[in-house]
């Protein structure tokens, strides 16, 4: 936005509220704070700015926001004129022709006064939440099948030996303690595997 010879830049939050204006150096020259329905709670600075809550154009004379087709009153959280859209019977709040974003301005905006949409960060959050849940479920499945997994780890260096040979070496006192432990671990892994096969 340009005023005189100075250019200002809008800074917005997740919903598109203009929370501050900065100059070309990045210095904050004006700030705005709003409640959930767009009432101005706090304002600093003297730069005249027509865009405010959710990026809507604000009329200082009436205290209303213009949403391209209808005026919205933040004091009541309602539009001044009826919505031409009929609504959906399964969404009772949508049947109110004067209502603003189904009374849920925290996650919804209505840029044209006819149809709301969910703020993008909410959609992204839902997608990430679903993906996280899927990863969690997949991890639980892996953990379910890996229960006692350390005991079932097979030694690929001993794969060529028979079960009988593994058992014999596991009891062989002439081997070092470390080498005997290796055979004992392999014996245990094979025994566990055989027990599972017998259960099936």
From TrEMBL:
Swiss-Prot/TrEMBL keywords: Repeat
InterPro entries on file: Rhs_assc_core, T6SS_VgrG/RHS, TEN-like_YD-shell
Biased composition (Basic residues): 191-200
Keyword Repeat: yes
Annotated region (Disordered), positions in chain: 160-200
Superkingdom as given in the UniProt entry: Bacteria
Biased composition (Basic and acidic residues): 176-190
Domain Teneurin-like YD-shell, chain residue ranges per copy: 2-106
Bilayer-crossing regions: none
Protein name listed in UniProt: Teneurin-like YD-shell domain-containing protein
Lineage: Bacteria, Bacillati, Bacillota, Bacilli, Bacillales
């Amino acid at each position: 936005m340009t005023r005189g010879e100075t250019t200002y830049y809008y800074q917005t939050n997740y919903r598109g509220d203009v929370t501050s204006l900065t100059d070309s150096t990045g210095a904050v020259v004006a700030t705005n704070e709003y409640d959930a329905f767009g009432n101005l709670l706090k304002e600093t600075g003297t730069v005249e700015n027509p865009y405010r809550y959710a990026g809507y154009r604000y009329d200082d004379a009436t205290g209303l926001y213009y949403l391209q087709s209808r005026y919205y009153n933040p004091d009541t959280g309602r539009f001044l004129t009826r919505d031409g859209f009929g609504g959906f019977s399964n969404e009772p709040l949508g049947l109110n022709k004067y209502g603003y974003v189904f009374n849920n301005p925290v996650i919804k905006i209505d840029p044209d006064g006819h149809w709301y949409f969910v703020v993008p960060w909410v959609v992204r959050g839902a997608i990430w939440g679903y993906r996280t849940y899927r990863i969690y479920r997949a991890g639980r499945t892996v953990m379910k099948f890996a229960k006692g997994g350390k005991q079932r780890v097979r030694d690929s260096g001993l794969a060529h030996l028979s079960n009988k040979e593994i058992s014999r070496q596991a009891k062989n006192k002439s081997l070092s303690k470390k080498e005997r432990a290796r055979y004992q671990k392999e014996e245990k892994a094979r025994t566990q595997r055989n027990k599972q096969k017998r259960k099936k």
